[in-house]
Amino acid sequence: MPERADLKADCGNCFGLCCVALPFAKSADFAIDKDAGEPCRNLLADFRCGVHADLRERGFQGCAVFDCFGAGQKVSQRTFAGRDWREGSEVAGPMFRVFPVMRRLHELLRYLDEALAMPAAGPVRDELRRAYDDVERLTLGGPGELAEVDVPAVREAVNALLLRASELARAGVPGPKPNRRGADLIGARLAGADLRGACLRGAYLIAADLRGADLRSADLIGADLRGADLRGADLTGCLFLTQGQLDSARGDAGTRLPDAVGRPAHW
User: Fold this and answer.
1) Digit-coded pLDDT (tens) for 215-260
2) Residue 239, beta-bridge partner list
3) What is the C-alpha separation between 74 and 64, in angstroms, rounded?
4) DSSP string, 195-218
5) Alpha-carbon span 168 to 128, nearest angstrom
């Protein structure tokens, strides 16, 4: 199932919010330190990135994998009706406060949209639809309303529903289904592992060796796949995998992917 266009980043209709509103800490993911509200030195006057074609080579891996799930254009074009942060502090301050909130809400919409399309989620589909409508309604509020949204509370309620949908979807997978929720699997040797239907929600799979692993129908919501080796792995039908997660991993032409994501260009 392809992602909805309004839940995918449209940088051409955004005022470079991820390059201004968010802070960077110099690390393996970012080549520089940058405070929240400070424009990145690579941001051009037309809001494009001046080093976009070479982000990884220049040490901006974090930028290369960042996904706002469509929040950037929503804040730029709807919440602030086309006014950009350069107009002054009366726009910049509220805009920078709202963007992270909108990003988290749009991420939830992305997951709810996927759950709604799961055939096995029938028993909770009405609840999923109501949750989707409720979260979408929040995204349509004004700057003041958005700044007051209790995102952790919204996330907690939605996550409970997403977990139920996940359990229903994975119940049809034969055999044992490993539960490694939140597990520390950094650098784990999992080549060829049978992880069909596994719960890997929030697992730390940084630099894990998953070559040839069977991850069909595994729940990967929030899993950290930075540097994970997915060469030859089968991720067909895995649940809640985002493009950003995949972009942060390593793979090859033999990696099998679900329809909702594309094969990263750097593989």
Assistant:
1) 999 999 999 999 999 999 999 999 999 999 999 999 999 999 998 8
2) 219
3) 21
4) -TT-B-TT-B-TT-B-TT-B-TT-
5) 13
